[in-house]
Amino acid sequence: MWKIINIVQLLLIVVVNIPLILIALVIGVFSRKAMKWYAMYIWSKFLLLIVGASVKIEGKEKLNKDNSAIYVANHSSHFDIPVLFNKMGFFLHFIAKIELKKIPLFGWGCSMVDIIWIDRKNKIKAQQSMHEAGEHIRKGLNVISFPEGTRSKTGEIGMFRRGSFMLAQQANVDVVPLYLKGTRKLNPPGTMSFRPSKVTIVVGDRLPIEGYKNHSPEEFANEVQMIVKKMEEEYS
């Protein structure tokens, strides 16, 4: 029964997503700000409705969209981004691998909303991208990063890579840890199956960058990973 339901859901995602992205591209020609609003409140809402996701946020009072930061979260599902778009209340510019830019429509749309592309295979280009990201953040953009680098296959929070934390130090901006609960059940990694799920975004305390300037990026990454793991234990 679930296989049939999942096939229908997958078809709906394709059928609905294509016109939604096309509409977004048209909007983006006239206003990138309007396109970001559309991604947050229209595109994400339709996708989450199709797969049966119910999303809530804990600790929303800790958010401050006017004080730019790098938000870091565990990564468990293709739906992590729509979940965050749906409930954060402001647009998060995510860091993505350059390969995704080649996906028709999706890649074009991401470029129009100032997504930060990283070429992991080319160290020089990766450093240039991180420098550009730092400039964007200093101008007031809020960024979301998944420092595990890939979706967790086991459900356990993996090692946090140093890139996001090096960027925070270079850009002199705070880090805000997030824990995403329930997205793995919604869409397990490596599958095209979906299950209705209650998803919770847990917002941790803002970490002022002043307290981490003397840390190595690796130490900074390890400390934040432990914070997110503690959030996981608290909400498990």
TrEMBL record:
Pfam families: Acyltransferase (PF01553). CDD domains: LPLAT_AGPAT-like. The HXXXXD motif is essential for acyltransferase activity and may constitute the binding site for the phosphate moiety of the glycerol-3-phosphate. One of its GO terms (biological process) is phosphatidic acid biosynthetic process. Pathway: Lipid metabolism; Phospholipid metabolism; CDP-diacylglycerol biosynthesis; CDP-diacylglycerol from sn-glycerol 3-phosphate: step 2/3. InterPro entries: AGP_acyltrans, Plipid/glycerol_acylTrfase. Its EC number is 2.3.1.51. Belongs to the 1-acyl-sn-glycerol-3-phosphate acyltransferase family. GO terms for cellular component: membrane. It catalyses: a 1-acyl-sn-glycero-3-phosphate + an acyl-CoA = a 1,2-diacyl-sn-glycero-3-phosphate + CoA. Keywords: Acyltransferase, Lipid biosynthesis, Lipid metabolism, Membrane, Phospholipid biosynthesis, Phospholipid metabolism, Transferase, Transmembrane, Transmembrane helix. This is 1-acyl-sn-glycerol-3-phosphate acyltransferase. GO terms for molecular function: 1-acylglycerol-3-phosphate O-acyltransferase activity. It is an enzyme of class 2 (transferase). It comes from Parvicella tangerina. Coiled coil: none annotated. It comes from the Bacteria. The chain crosses the membrane at residues 7-31, 37-55. Residues 69-183 form the Phospholipid/glycerol acyltransferase domain.
